[in-house]
Write a structure and sequence with these properties.
UDP-galactose 4-epimerase, domain 1, 13 strands, binds nicotinamide-adenine-dinucleotide, Rossmann fold
Amino acid sequence: MRFLVTGSAGFIGYHLCRQLLAHGHQVDGIDGMTDYYDPALKRARHGQLSTTNLFRAHEVMLEDMEALTRIVGETQADVVVHLAAQAGVRYSMEEPRSYVSANIVGTFNLLEALRAAPVSHLMLASTSSVYGANDMPFAESDRTDHPLSFYAATKKATEVMAHSYAHLWNQPTTIMRFFTVYGPWGRPDMALFKFTRSILEGKPIDIYNAGKMQRDFTYVEDAVEGIIRLADIAPTRADSLAADPAGSPAAPWRVVNIAGGKPVELDAYIGAIEAATGRVAIRNELPMPTGEPQSTLAATRELERLTGFLPSTPVETGVRAFVDWYRDFYKV
Ligand SMILES: NC(=O)c1ccc[n+]([C@@H]2O[C@H](COP(=O)([O-])OP(=O)(O)OC[C@H]3O[C@@H](n4cnc5c(N)ncnc54)[C@H](O)[C@@H]3O)[C@@H](O)[C@H]2O)c1
């Protein structure tokens, strides 16, 4: 099959492309190499992917409608996986406009480009943050009208924009809500990366709410397995009208949480980093930041029903894989 992946030099995009190439698929990757975090890490990821001629890289911003339309038209993909975005909860208080540009304008441009060149399946990345302060576990059929961060608000907007296009232009679309994805080649703005770097440098780590936060951490290889399995199961109008609790009565569109449904306390996560690095963390205790939920926990029935698969890599294993990668990549 032929895949077009946006955000292919990003953390999840890189792992997805690597697995797709290993399965023998052709992959076109689009990434604008934004400087939200070190573009050298993004270029290194693209460099790894470019060792096979099944992969074609396009260094393009989603905001460049002309280039995007050309690439979408030329690629003639079967499946588009749209991962490119301005991510991060806290940064959305500092630079909210970059979220409007990448997430709202960028997704709109992709939807428009696909209107001229529809695909069998569009898969779009969303986030557990859209659940806000809902009761847990977070189920796909829950209301998600009360985001706590502007990041979540823009992601919710992309979900419903995609719904209208799925309805109007019959574009089968799956919304994937990810829950704190972690693993090797991970993002420098995320806790695992920051904690590992500080612990190895003997510097203190910022711990919010005395570590009494829980996250439904998802190992990146598990998240990718979920994406690849879902790629073959495009929603249709018929399933949406039948008993698909995550579907829509009006469009070939569905939402799926991608997570294992096993929350881990931040303290246990830090313990896994300490074990993997062989060092004890110096803790700088801070109050809970605004916009961050205290806990996330996914309902996983939809993912399991559709794919027969659930993420299950233990955090000890996943954290160790990250620390091994970090030490090797940064030679520390
Ligand atoms: N990692 C997680 O825990 C997590 C959790 C929930 C949702 N998500 C979502 O999953 C997707 C992938 O996340 P990630 O962790 O790989 O993030 P990432 O930041 O590593 O990857 C995103 C990539 O998109 C590119 N990009 C950003 N804006 C762009 C634009 N306007 N045009 C072209 N390229 C652009 C960036 O250069 C980057 O390489 C994102 O949509 C994110 O919101 C991630």
